[in-house]
Amino acid sequence: MLSTLWLLLSFAVPVRGIYKFISCPHGKQCQKALLSSNDVLLQCSSAGAHWYYFFLQTRSGWTTTNTSVSNMVTTPIGHLLIRDPLPSQTGLYSCWNKNGTQETQYEIDFQDVSSLHITHKSLDQDPLHNESLELGRQETVFTHWEPWQDCNRCNVPGERKRLGYCYIQEPQEEPVPCGIFLGQAKLKSNRLRPEMQVEACLVPCDPQHSYHHEYTIFDSFSFSKESEALWLTCSLGSIYR
Ligand SMILES: *[C@@H]1O[C@H](CO)[C@@H](O)[C@H](O)[C@H]1NC(C)=O
Ligand SMILES: *[C@@H]1O[C@H](CO)[C@@H](O)[C@H](O)[C@H]1NC(C)=O
Ligand SMILES: *[C@@H]1O[C@H](CO)[C@@H](O)[C@H](O)[C@H]1NC(C)=O
């Protein structure tokens, strides 16, 4: 099983931030669906490690020692930080130690966050239904839901959300994240996308739980005259919590 936890990095990488931490047992291969545009940190605890990556859509990749991809950085302890990942970075990531032995390997599907299908349960909006792909092997596209995240408030009505990833299953086979299943294949299907569901919640405040909310204050910005719009990017924001 993959375990995920939050890590606040203040010294290991040049830029502070909160990243979703993805780990995989030593010597194992782990498959995982995630969302694009949200920073992640792939675990590999081996100082001086180098990473080999291979992007499925473009069938390109190399090692972090002789190529650089601007949004990927190896931290001094060996983790791989991927900032603002793109759907085209769906692929294989393997970590090798100094002796040239593979430590761990990830197959990551960065599902396109801009195609997220969002529904509100308390407003009776329907999530996506299972659909068959008709590629000839009775493939079913379905949403694999993660657990509900914490309610955003306590003692008063709040909201909580959960993420759902696109998976494809063939009969008698293990389900596979859509982007990994399809690889380079481009299918025109409106079903091949991740989901988010929101619902109302009301929870008592738990004295054991520390309700520390990190926040960023934007105090220096200006609107663009043409669009009258503005993007504020919160470095502490993440769809995963
Ligand atoms: C990068 O390193 C890998 C593995 O050592 C090697 O196979 C590949 O040819 C190198 N690529 C370049 C562009 O030097
Ligand atoms: C690399 O190999 C040496 C010699 O076999 C060994 O002592 C060391 O523990 C190995 N290091 C790693 C990170 O596996
Ligand atoms: C959708 O498909 C998945 C995977 O095949 C299956 O586990 C699930 O029960 C299906 N859901 C419905 C409502 O048919």
Automatic annotation (TrEMBL):
It is found in: Membrane. It is a single-pass type I membrane protein. GO terms for cellular component: membrane. Keywords: Glycoprotein, Membrane, Signal, Transmembrane, Transmembrane helix. The keyword Transmembrane applies. It comes from the Eukaryota. Its main location: membrane. Residues 1-17 form the signal peptide. Belongs to the FAM187 family. This is Ig-like domain-containing protein.
